[in-house]
Ubiquitin-like domain-containing protein (Pyrodinium bahamense), 358 residues
Amino acid sequence: MNSTVRVCIRTAAGEKLDVEVPEESHVLDLKKEVARRWEIPRNVQTLVLDTTILCDTVGLSSLSAEGVLSLSLVLSLDGVWQDLRSSRPQLCRAALDTLAQLGLRAGEEAVATVIEQLSASDERLRGQAVQALGYMAPRGHGPALAAALLCLEDADYLVRLKALEVLPLLAPKGDGKTTAAVAARLCHQDATVRQTAAESLAVVADSNRSSAVAIVIDLLEHDEDFARRSAASALALLAEKSDERAAAALCTKLQHHSAEVRQAVSEAFLALPGSCSEEALSSLTQLLTLEQPGPVRVVAAQTVGKLAEKGDEMAIGTLVACSRHEDDLVRMTVFESICELAEQGNEAALAALQNPNA
């Protein structure tokens, strides 16, 4: 039977790691285990026995005759600081990788040092630095959040993109300033930045979704088609967890002069959580009247049909009632949805098909 050494490793923060390794193991093997368990890179680990710093090549069996060992783990960042201030970009990038792996363990001084790197002339370093902040700084960290927001104006679009990616990690949930800053990027010329902004907005807004929905709905009036499309994309993501005020705002935009906007708003409407409220359904029904332009009536009918297909009972009733609408296109749209419901075995839809004049 192979002999083992039981090792207890403690940090100054009170963390404790118990491992059992073969007695022929070395200090380097312990560091690999620490890196695996705690995600602390080996190059910043210093293992100490009493007051003695242990070299990687030292065998564990030579340190304990009884097969039990108690060690302290100290983070040594001097080499990281030196590399981070090096004129060689590859050393700086390696140092940023190390700090990102350390995450919150890196500490306040490390966060401040990484923020300094955001002024580097190398855009790759700036991008890597802002990305590292997302791992190193706790949510709501003022200097890190301010630095990431400034990166939204960086000359390099990849830096701006990475800033958008980390803002949901740094911003307090529902932070109005961050929400507005991210929403503004929905009008960016670069499609990747716009898409990332749409995805980030849903996370950053969180409890302040109604405010975010209002901002995005205003962007549906933007002069540029690409801005309206990205606003619609963000709207659908936001609508998934929005409240009744969002539904009311969406109803007003179903009358938009742009067919593209009407369709996008309809899709966002369908993303709203739960069943459609009586008030929202009433607003949709009003859009089916002959006073509305034909395209508006059709998209309203499509929206009611999709809500019905989701199983919304009130929407199903409205849909069946619209099967005798005076507008041929509305009737055709409604008929398609009723057929879809009938295939699902819905009794109201089956009855409407069997007795269309009822």
